[in-house]
Design a protein that fits this description.
By secondary structure, the protein is mainly alpha-helical. The chain has a single domain, classed as Peptidoglycan recognition protein-like (Lysozyme-like, 3-Layer(aba) Sandwich), CATH 3.40.80.10. The protein has five helices and three strands, in the order αβββαααα. Strands 2-1-3 form a three-stranded mixed beta sheet, covered by helices on one side. A hairpin with a 5-residue loop joins β1 and β2. The radius of gyration is 14 Å and the shape is globular. It starts with a helix and ends with a helix. 21% of the residues are buried. One of its GO terms (biological process) is innate immune response.
Length: 123
Amino acid sequence: RDMQCFHIESRGWNDIAYNFLVGCDGNIYEGRGWKTVGAHTLGYNRISLGISFIGCFMKELPTADALNMCRNLLARGVEDGHISTDYRLICHCQCNSTESPGRRLYEEIQTWPHFYNIEEEEQ
């Protein structure tokens, strides 16, 4: 709720920026959901789904439950037709000047199926 209030009141957006959020309690929280364009990554909002892990992950990973729930969310999105079967998994730090999702979590996500290295495309 705090993040949603910040996005609405301070940023002037109509809702929280992300489509979904993953809590370290292993729960998925719906932000804008599957069918509403997010406001998470300038230049990518209309062609992507924004998933945020709640917390700071510079040195430590989210819980195993949280990581599994995110993978399950992606699989469910594919199964239900919200996400293409050949989707590309790209992190915020690859598109914008930010440390999000945190160094440690970024290292982990690079090992997931569908991770896409934008830097290789630009070379």
